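FORM 7B: Structural annotation worksheet

SECTION A. Query
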Amino acid sequence: MRTRLEQWTAVDDYIAGLLVGKDPALEKALRTSVEAGLPPIHVAPNQGKFLHLLAKMHGACNILEIGSLGGYSTIWLARALAAGGRLVTLEFDPKHAEVARRNIADAGLADSVELREGRAVDTMQRLIDEKHAPFDFIFIDADKEGYPDYFRLSLKLSRAGTCIVADNIIRDGAVVDPKNPDERVREVRRFMEAVAAEPRVSATAIQTVGDKGYDGFAIALVIS
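SECTION B. Predicted structure
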């Protein structure tokens, strides 16, 4: 009998095989990330396409990604850009940034993607100080301890109509436990509470299962 995770993984594989398909650039991005020793915390292929479709349906010309890792989700999102669009991706770890840059270039996206290294809160503040144009779509997928600040700063980089998506907000169900000692869980709860209290957004969250386990996305639309 299959375990729960084996069943979820089998379904993910079925969906990816049927609806995502093979892609040399994406597969190479995953392979080079493994070879470089990056943690296997990238989004699953069907989740990558989910983000791609969200950004494409949104007509995004200007995307911000918080957490590049090896550039896998960056490639998915950059391919969703409208003609002439730009994506800014932020990465703290120099090793991750190096791998991401290579993967982005190998995917033929170097001209439409700007990778900025450093602490995301600092880089986001610089974007604000530079008076960067508001982003149409923002994907938060970095250290969970920073989620409340990333949301706060994302609002300053948004406009009415901006879509903000945050990954890994269910934490294997631990998000419902207010006494959980894990700082990542506590900060995700703070993030969710900040989203709920923010009158400028309309939001929901969905649970997901798959080869990444039990987790989920929060999705917020800036309405004013």
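SECTION C. Observations
The longest helix spans residues 4-20. The chain has a mean pLDDT of 97.

SECTION D. Sign-off
Analyst initials: ____
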